[in-house]
Amino acid sequence: MLKVHSRCDLACDHCYVYEHADQSWRGRPMVMDARTVAAVAERIAEHAATHRLRRVSVVLHGGEPLLLGPDRMRQVLAVLRRRITPVSHLDLLMQSNGVRLSEPYCDLFAEYDVRVGISLDGDRAANDRHRRFANGASSHPQVLRGIGLLRTPAYRRLFAGILCTVDVRNDPIAVYEALRAVRPPRLDLLLPHATWANPPYRPAGRATPYADWLLAVHERWTADGRPMPIRLFDSLRSTAAGGHSGSEWVGLDPADLVVVETDGTWEQVDSLKTAYDGAAATGLSVFTHTVDEVSRLPEIALRQTGLAGLSAQCRTCPVVTQCGGGLFAHRYRESNGFDNPSAYCADLKELIVSLSARHDVEPPVTAPVDQDGTDLPDGLLDRIAAGRTDADAVRFLAESQLAITRAMLVEVADGTPVTERTGWEALVRLDREAPDAVEETLRHPYVRVWAVDARRQLGTDSAAAAQLSCVAAAAAVRAGANVELDVPMRAGVLHLPSLGAVTVPEPVTGAAVLTVEPGRWRLRHAAGTTLVSFDGDLHATAPQVTGGRWQANRRLAFAGTTILFEDLDPHRDCHDWKAAERPDASTLARWGEVLAGAWSSIEADLPHQAAAVRAGLRAVVPLVDDPTGTLRSSTARQAFASVGVALADASATAVMIAHEFQHSVLGALLDLCDLFAPSPAVRLTVGWRSDPRPVEGVLQGTYAHLTITEMWRQRASREAPGGPAHQRHEQFRTWTADAADALLGSGALTPAGNRFVRRLAAALTP
Ligand code: SF4
Q1: Is the pLDDT of residue 19 over 70?
Q2: Ligand 1 pocket, 725 CB below 6 A?
Q3: Sheet harboring 259-260: ordered strands across?
């Protein structure tokens, strides 16, 4: 955090820089001069290079950084970009009161890619309570004007969010509504700085007014469908699930921020200024000391020790992993420094306990879903276990998978800044107007693979979430609906999941605009130039394409109908083996023959399950051949009803498809019902592998081999005794029976798992 200007044009009475214990600002230069900026940039670049940091964040702060003026600001930004960008990705942010934000400033921030956070305490009444000019006048209109600028299309991407300091005298709903109205991409609700020496304001008779205030906001925010991320609530959800808080306010994440004052002195996090005069001082300077030397200071190292660095009371507190003792500065007491719980302890505890009671937590990864199978339709578990999965059972699993995909899309949309949710908004509209088109798109197996990735990358890579627009675009094209969307291009390719890919002649990367109308659509540069236009019903017939190339998803004959031959979707490359490139026409014809032959074999060898395969299997992904000619097949856990296979003869392909389809069925069942408790220490020996395997691997293998045993039994029944099919049948039957015994004796199965494996073992007896 760089203090580029040490004065402010507002005189907020709750400001910790000027109004609290530390008064060091009085002796500092007003502005960080060019020599100091160069030294800071050098120190940051040096640190990033030493530790090979892929990313560094620099926050321009004050006082009020906009007091620098655009020319000086440009010099600061140019030096930081010039020195740090070649070493590490540099995120530049600025925290401002917004009063002086202007178009020239916004143009400058757009040029240097600086995101801007604005401080606003709510509606006018709430904001006027503290955030006023020195003459007492309101700053509210000027701040709203600044925010308005950041909301215009030209500057929207610069808007980082709103920082609001809570005052329990303000109406929580009025504050929330006022902040929501300016559509911030993120909202921070901060407790006013306080310590045990200078306790927080509490209305008489109220034990936890801050928790009550925040819980009221949380209730309204949840009822509204969480229109923007609120960092405190999101941090508590994350820590409840064992994740990071991503914030110094709660949780046990190590401190990772240092401050440089205008004179180049290193300081600790500046909220410490609330504790006592000089609390944030280190005595070190950018001219003489490296970042590593600063981070080794005992007072900073202490804040990187997690639980061990907390007071005795916090260490034994039941909510400590979520709370983390609150903000470090808030623990200060004159008698013993920072070795205390937070001055907000009661409020933090109440907030965390109440949110847990509202189930505002991610379910722990290991949480049982249904351990005895009672939530499943009658008989479903037994039918699936016995290898008698029928079309109805597969349809039930497919519906549950669709529901999970939809839930994941909601989470991705929830975690995407409001300003980048046009794809989501279009999808929601299409879901009302053309539900079949949306549903068909969402059933594509690799939409969920993408959603899982995007969910994981929320907050770190917005590009992953941008693919939501492609999902909406595919649904719109399928429905022939009117829609205009910003869509992400990668090296000149736009992929529309479940439909195909557009390639433009130039390697465009970044956003393009897709306009869809019934029977016609057009892809153009964000700047306006048309890249490709299409006329015709894209997903039904070959369209007329001008300016680029359209590659439609291909379908091959299978099971009396056709099946998607997925050789385009970038997310299909999630199997154990590499996905093959799109085959040429003669190889594709060979695939057609093999799949047709494989279906005949499945019909003959799996009469009880062929209907399930026909009803359930949605896609085949061609895999790269094994150079030694070994058979290759694979199922990806998140890609329901899609199997990956390398090209082989029809008989072997039938076995591989049947085997992988079993994995898909069991994977979908495991999403609904826990069959085993995760036990990393348990490893079981099985006949088909030389290495001991984890329980889930053995369960999956056993279940797949149940079907392969049945296939070989059917094949053996058409062969003279003692033939190769008899030997294969006997081998698979023995492997499967032994593995079922090992599972039943492992102690790792749930009641439903025990029942499942017993049924499976019983089905092995002819
Ligand atoms: S709730 Fe209180 S005691 Fe518990 S961790 Fe937080 S500050 Fe410490």
Answers
A1: no
A2: no
A3: 187-190, 159-165, 114-119, 89-96, 55-61, 2-3, 259-260, 265-267, 281-285
Is 251's C-beta closer than 6 angstroms to any atom of ligand 1? no
Angle in degrees, CA 7, 8, 10, rounded to 5: 155
Q: Is the CB of 309 under 6 A from ligand 1?
A: no
Identify the pLDDT of residue 480.
Answer: 87
Which of 345, 347, 352 should be mutated for ligand 1, with most atoms under 8 A from CB?
Answer: 345
Which amino acid residue places its CA nearest to atom 3 of ligand 1? 314
Phi-psi region of 446 (alpha: psi -120 to 50; beta: other; left: phi over 0): alpha
The whole-number average pLDDT for the span 287-313 is 88
The residues pairing with 95 across neighbouring beta strands, listed in sequence order, are: 117
**Residue 319: CB within 6 Å of ligand 1?**
yes
Cβ of 314 less than 6 Å from ligand 1: yes
What is the whole-number distance in angstroms between the Cα of residue 295 and the centre of ligand 1? 25
CB-CB contact of 675 with 699 (8 Å): yes
pLDDT tens track for 29-74? 899 999 999 999 999 999 998 887 878 999 999 889 999 999 999 9
Beta bridge partners of 281: 267
State pTM to two decimals: 0.55
Whether the pLDDT of residue 14 is over 80: the answer is no
Q: Is the CB of residue 341 below 6 angstroms from any atom belonging to ligand 1?
A: yes
Distance 311 CA to ligand 1 centre (A): 9
Provide the H-helix boundaries in 415-489. 422-433, 435-442, 445-456, 462-466, 468-479
Segment 382-386 shows an average pLDDT of 93
Residue 215 reports pLDDT greater than 60: yes
Above pLDDT 90, what percent of the chain?
Answer: 60
Q: Is 667 in the pocket of ligand 1 (CB under 6 A)?
A: no
Nearest CA to 400 out of 700, 160, 616 is that of 616
One-letter amino acid of 148: G
